[in-house]
Amino acid sequence: MGDLAKIFKAYDVRGVVPDEFDEEIAEATGAAFIRVTGAARIVTAHDMRASSVPLAAAFARGAAAQGADVVEAGLGSTDLLYYASGSLGLPGVMFTASHNPAKYNGMKMCLSGARPIGQDTGLREIRDLVAAGVPAQDGPVGKVEQRDLLAGYAEHLKTLVDLSGIRPLKVVVDAGNGMGGHTVPAVFDGLPLEVVPLYFELDGTFPNHEANPIEPANLRDLQAAVLAHGADLGLAFDGDADRCFAVDERGEIVSPSAITALVAERELAKYPGASIVHNLITSAAVPEIIAENGGKPVRTRVGHSFIKQTMAEVGAVFGGEHSAHFYFRDFWFADSGMLAALHVLAALGEQDGTLSSLLASYDRYIASGEINSEVADQAAAVARVRAVFTARDGVTVDELDGTTFTGDGWWFNLRASNTEPLLRLNAEAGDGQTMAAIRDEVLSIVRTEEAK
User: Fold this and answer.
1) In the chain, how many domains are there?
2) Phi-psi group of 239: left, alpha or beta (phi > 0 → left; psi -120 to 50 → alpha; rest → beta)
């Protein structure tokens, strides 16, 4: 049945179709999902990839053969699946490979209430059961029903953000031929927005550009359209529309850390004194702004399972990541790029200024962005960096996730990839010259041995 260990990742299932992931695996996973979760009823949704419909159908067959009923929500974004799981109180499965190229597909699974399933919370057991072969059950086969949840999803999101007082705005939206083209019209319906759509046609071959807005090249069309149309802002969604990036009226890319700070400020106005979670790669401005607004900043490792777990532990109302994943307690602690977009629209529309002026106070530092270096021995590279920087006065080190070095007015983090021979660098400082000097010195040390 192929190399299951290769496609069952830490938090989801993902592989090339059909070479690594096919309908046989999807059907067996559907059966194993029911066995492991004990669910009598589940909900599924899928993205626009050509392989998503047959894979979702195969999963439903496997689940129904174990006696479980299946609610098929059909086309949807990943946060629509979380809405379905939360509002219906059912375990759920989303068929998507998010921002990955067309040849990939995968599954994101959750328990009822959109609680994530990862290797330590059932995914390993599901994989092992698929590998061993799922026993048949003797009882009746479950029913499969189709149910359109798009309107309910759109209405629910609009109950979480007050958009009643916003002024008319012109917004360019780049859906990247992904699921934003399906969900944006429903969510934005009835709002005072003039929408300029880019690539709303659902097409899993991604004919215009990759649906991965964390890569600046994939935002160029959006930036150009914002300027050409004199828009107030631009929004870009990834393939499964659970991440959202913004571009201001000047065509400049907005840092996800600035959006984290903006939404944190708004959530703290609603929930004074609450905890807000941020991962350690977000700008140092984020915990500063949280504290300035009376909130409690809580730092966590990179990765949605750590964010969600920490949010639940401390009762946080919001969490943000540098990768533009935004998590809301009011949305079952799940992430929703669309909900973050509504917060940005509300904040901009409640006042008369531009987005760049609104966010100016949140952009306090200069960041390098994430820089990858191919390094055969990551531990040795980090040790070389540690030897250099810990010899300097006032430098502190912590190892919450990778290794973070903090000095006077700067910090940087080195993290090894879990799946590739890569070392990831993120650096930030109070000015561009200091940031560039730190960045270049660290890269020089990291890459020294590799060049020999």
Assistant:
1) 4
2) alpha
